[in-house]
Automatic annotation (TrEMBL):
Signal peptide: none
PANTHER family: SLR0610 PROTEIN, SLR0610 PROTEIN-RELATED
TM stretches of this protein: 21-39, 59-81, 120-137, 143-166, 205-224, 230-250
Domain of life from the UniProt record: Bacteria
Name of the molecule in the record: Uncharacterized protein
Keyword Transmembrane helix assigned: yes
Matches recorded under Pfam families: ABC2_membrane_6
Record keywords, A-Z: Membrane, Transmembrane, Transmembrane helix
Length: 262
């Protein structure tokens, strides 16, 4: 574990050095992220101008939900978007050979090699949105809720990583589908809406089979006292289970890989 943490820090350092070469692009990304964030906030304001609540979530609570989604979404993008997006290219071009000969887990190396610092800015915007939303709510959040919420954020990142890797592994079967990893990105968007807006079938599907609702909707609900702490235990169990499944699928998928030398 210590070795892996050192490698992650090294990957982050190298990624920062690479990003700082293009300083104008780095600054411009902050501007575009801020603009998109303001657009989202404006849209929520327009929706709640005519309604008091959506599926039992008032304006302040919805801001907490969106803020939670932005935190988790930005963290998984910071760590994994540049990595998951390249898996299909590595497979198609035979570049995966480079990772397989290294004295470290190929799964770890492929999925943690690159880091996007641009995304960290949105983490702080998400945190601001959570506290701004709480300021609109008339009750205080107990410390235990905050503690469970933080645990669920880490579980959400682990679940998201596993689901993203599982969808990316389909590239071993069809390497020409270079954007297969975007399937997870699209499905993950369901988590920025209240659980109650989905019917029973989709609710169960997005909670237990492809548990993207544990990314934001359920953690935010636990923080606000809408859901029981038992969901925190479920999130930890799901995180461990899907991490193990994703590793199994990765190792199994490697059997279908045709190296550049074959």
């Amino acid at each position: 574990m210590k070795r892996h943490l050192k490698l992650i820090l090294l990957f982050m350092k190298l990624s920062l050095m690479k990003e700082m070469i293009y300083k104008k692009t780095f600054v411009w990304s902050f501007i575009t992220i801020t603009a998109w964030w303001l657009v989202q906030l404006t849209m929520v304001n327009l929706i709640y101008y005519n309604v008091k609540a959506i599926a039992g979530w008032n304006f302040g609570e919805m801001l907490v939900l969106l803020g939670t989604f932005n935190i988790v979404d930005s963290l998984i993008f910071a760590f994994f978007v540049n990595n998951m997006g390249k898996i299909a290219d590595y497979i198609r071009k035979g570049d995966l050979d480079f990772f397989l000969i290294k004295p470290i887990s190929s799964q770890f190396y492929v999925t943690f090699k690159l880091f996007s610092f641009n995304e960290l800015y949105e983490v702080f915007l998400g945190m601001f949105l959570v506290f701004f939303g709480l300021g609109k709510i008339s009750y205080n959040i107990p410390l235990i809720n905050w503690s469970v919420f933080i645990i669920m954020i880490f579980s959400a990142i682990a679940i998201s990583y596993a689901l993203w890797l599982i969808t990316s592994c389909f590239a071993f079967i069809s390497p020409r589908i270079s954007e297969i990893h975007e399937a997870f990105i699209s499905i993950s968007q369901f988590s920025k809406y209240p659980v109650g807006i989905y019917n029973k079938f989709f609710n169960r599907l997005l909670v237990w089979f492809f548990p993207v609702l544990f990314m934001a909707a359920i953690p935010a609900g636990v923080l606000l006292g809408k859901y029981s702490f038992i969901y925190a235990a479920f999130s930890i169990i799901l995180a461990v289970m899907f991490i193990l499944i994703s590793t199994k699928i990765w190792n199994f998928s490697l059997k279908y890989y045709q190296s550049a030398s074959s």
